[in-house]
Amino acid sequence: AASYTDSSDDETSPRDKQQKNSKGSSDFCVKNIKQAEFGRREIEIAEQEMPALMALRKRAQGEKPLAGAKIVGCTHITAQTAVLMETLGALGAQCRWAACNIYSTLNEVAAALAESGFPVFAWKGESEDDFWWCIDRCVNVEGWQPNMILDDGGDLTHWIYKKYPNMFKKIKGIVEESVTGVHRLYQLSKAGKLCVPAMNVNDSVTKQKFDNLYCCRESILDGLKRTTDMMFGGKQVVVCGYGEVGKGCCAALKAMGSIVYVTEIDPICALQACMDGFRLVKLNEVIRQVDIVITCTGNKNVVTREHLDRMKNSCIVCNMGHSNTEIDVASLRTPELTWERVRSQVDHVIWPDGKRIVLLAEGRLLNLSCSTVPTFVLSITATTQAITYLSVFSIQALALIELYNAPEGRYKQDVYLLPKKMDEYVASLHLPTFDAHLTELTDEQAKYLGLNKNGPFKPNYYR
């Protein structure tokens, strides 16, 4: 029997379907609302691996600290995102959601959210036009004005700036969780065009280390295995970029016995790569010999048509950065090259002489397009996002001030990093899962270090 996620027998665009959930609502657009039961089971599994979000939900749902919040979100639509959305809903927020990647939506989870009453506009395999249509359906709705933005990549923020700039008069702030989106926000701020406060979640330590480093360390192997069934031992791999994502990918591949090369523009990251035992090269120096090329830079045209022309037969090419700009896929859509679909998210691109490369997810984010990511890690990231919205939480005499409940004037029209205390709080919520026991400073030790016994234990610049 076909899997419940198999849509091969139904090529009708969700935009052309008339669907309603069991309550009669049609304010959503998903692949198949009948898959909701399967999605609900996946969400229930995810809840078991997201202890901090569930603790936040239990602790604050009576107080409804997000009452009145109208959050429009654009992230990956997965079981883990569903736990975040339902937590925000339990705390009083109204949410409307679209996907930030055309391949990462889990159709059954989107159906479960729609069945629960969330206006969700997303399905796996959207076209570019579908992508922007879904974002517009989240934003442009009569009688509903968002007052908070949760973005992953900056596309939602960009769309509102472009199409509905007047909405920013009522928006209290933006929360952004990706390198790409944060870069866009800093560009807006530098140009004097950022008209609301923005919170940079990406550069919080719990996001950088757990989502970018540890998550990618596990999910890079999962994505490559599911798509290619390859063996890693002895393979030559070049990883472009040695930031947190690159570090995670390199560590995983090295542990599996691969020979790993690194390209990097930053001398500090480059030195780290050398000290970690990786050979630092320029891409041109190894492009003819490597078996796998992985981009992790957040930049554009890292792998150009010239590189692609010089790759050896059956080289695997993929991207672990947020955007689809790192590999020049557009240059491959020319008459002399033949595209051959192997399986979902796997293409052969064949040259006239018979040489072929294996392109994964058409150059989009590998792990969320072709596999899944560890739920526990996303619990950390999602909790960081959630706390960014929630004030009234305090831990050990220090209030967590955030955008939604912040007094007018506290946050200017700029990009802010999350306080170290919040990072420590998110981490502490996850320690009970490991039966971990924190050591406490004595009064004498705290005085000697010049710290509060309850933290924060590191300065905000510490990474």
Automatic annotation (TrEMBL):
Catalyzed reaction equations: S-adenosyl-L-homocysteine + H2O = L-homocysteine + adenosine
The EC number(s) this enzyme carries: 3.13.2.1
Protein name stated in the entry: Adenosylhomocysteinase
Similarity comment text for this entry: Belongs to the adenosylhomocysteinase family.
Gene that this polypeptide is encoded by: Ahcyl2
Cofactor: NAD(+)
Pathway(s) of this molecule: Amino-acid biosynthesis; L-homocysteine biosynthesis; L-homocysteine from S-adenosyl-L-homocysteine: step 1/1
Region (Disordered): 1-26
Textual note on the cofactor: Binds 1 NAD(+) per subunit.
Family matches, as PANTHER family: ADENOSYLHOMOCYSTEINASE, ADENOSYLHOMOCYSTEINASE 3
Molecular function GO terms recorded: adenosylhomocysteinase activity
Sequence positions that bind NAD(+): G243, E244, V245, G246, K247, G248, E264, N367
Any GO BP: S-adenosylmethionine cycle
Domain (S-adenosyl-L-homocysteine hydrolase NAD binding): residue spans on this chain: 212-373
Pfam families, sorted: AdoHcyase, AdoHcyase_NAD
Gene3D superfamilies listed in its UniProt record: Adenosylhomocysteinase-like (3.40.50.1480), NAD(P)-binding Rossmann-like Domain (3.40.50.720)
Domain of life: Eukaryota
Residues given in the record as substrate binding sites: T78, D152, E177, K207, D211
Taxonomic source organism: Sula dactylatra
GO cellular component: cytosol
NCBIfam families: ahcY, PRK05476.2-3
Coiled coil: none
Protein keywords: Hydrolase, NAD, One-carbon metabolism
